[in-house]
Design a protein that fits this description.
mainly beta; 5 strands
């Protein structure tokens, strides 16, 4: 785990959900550090083909809710 990942508390594989017509589950596929911009998180739809890139600060405003991490 890189320092950047520790800063946001997010790691690749963390799961999130969004509410639309139903619940869609997402998994963090990549965490990219961009200097002076911050972290860009790529979410992959679990069992689907959709990808979405979101700035780490915008995760909650985009409707992503963190699921319990399985240890």
């Amino acid at each position: 785990m890189t320092k950047a990942n520790q800063d946001s508390g997010l790691i690749v594989g963390d799961r999130f959900s969004t509410q639309g017509r139903g619940t869609t589950f997402w998994e963090i596929e990549t965490i990219t550090d961009i200097r002076h911009v911050g972290q860009i998180i790529t979410f992959a739809e679990v069992g689907g083909i959709t990808r979405m890139k979101v700035h780490v600060n915008d995760i909650s405003t985009k409707g992503f809710h963190r699921e319990a991490r399985s240890e």
